[in-house]
Here is the input.
Amino acid sequence: MATNPMHQFNVYRIGPEIKIDQIDISFTNASLFMVISSLIILIIFNLGSVKKNIIPNKIQLLAELSYSFISKMISDTAGSKGKPYFGFIFSLFMFVLFCNMLGMLPYAFTVTSHIIVTFVLAAFIFIGVTVIGFLKHGLGYLKLFVPSGVPIVLLPLIVVIEVISYLSRPISLSVRLFANMMAGHTMMKVFGGFVISLGLVGGWLPLGFSVALTGLEILVAFLQAYVFAILTCIYLNDALNLHH
Amino acid sequence: MHKKLVLYLFLSIIAFFSNVYGAESEGMPQLNPEFWVSQIFWLILTFGFLFVILSKFILPKISNNLELRKSQILENIETAEKQKIESENKIKEYETLINNSKNEARNYFNEARKKIIQDIDKKREKIEEEIDLEIRNAEKEIVELKKSSPEKINKIATETSAQLIKQLIGEEINNSSISAIVEDLSKKNKGKYYGN
Here is the structure.
């Protein structure tokens, strides 16, 4: 029989147990894939930045296109004030993208399919954006919860809704990425299991589904990284340019 | 709300599959907090490392490269435009030069033609004058010849007939009687031999 489709999300220790004050920070398969993703990103972008050709080679083109892609995304959503945060957004997008993409390899572990990872990222962004908002606008940042042009009668309700939506940002941001990743990988595992269990006779249909799903998942992997990055930009825009 | 509902539905499907497939069903590994701290620790470590290296060392280089390329391309465009203007000026100079030389050549040609035509006219006039002179002389000679020819012919005729008579008859006849007859004959036949 096919194995448990959730089995792929298991985290297990690689190497010795490392404990600091009873807290387990052992090196796991999740850690391994975080390290691999980071190293691949660093290698690619280092290779893409060492040469200074006027006509770029392939890897240089890749690095420079990514650079201008993220740069354009930030300037489109957060304006020129978002420039100082370019490094963070770029790292974030690349990290999420490469973790998602590496997860598409068979037997690979998907770092972003764990709610704790995405939640830490989202919470960091949420806290960072809130701090930036208060630093830039002081208490005026609270005006974010009071949209202009709303009748006074509705104002208490609107403010409550705005506050809730603001506070749910880290949850929606993290759950979106985590759920997409987990759902896709589970689906692929399930269809893969069907291929095996139905055998040569009936296995072709789920095999076709698996192929189609692989394409879809690659799309989703890119799209979710993009969505994660662009939502970060939008939150940053709220903090930098108070529109309301 | 909608998203949460979808997620809930999804989780229940997952749970269903877990129960169907896994004998060693353990639910979602994501909700097992055993390695949460480890994951957070390694996430902060790797992402922090990535962020620092990217933003301190790699991204400035890429942005430098992009700026460099932009400025270099702009420079190249500028020099290209300068050279274009220069070449256009050169073409204009060249064209004026060519036009001037064409005009000069035309002038030279016209002058030469005028000279030649004048020369030819002069020479023709001279030759025509000479020809006229010769024609006049020839006409004079002809007129003189015409005047003198009847007498000469008469004389020759007289002499010839005298000789003929001498040969035929063997006697000499008086020249004056012969010339009288010849003159008489020539007067009769005037216009017959000279076709004037």
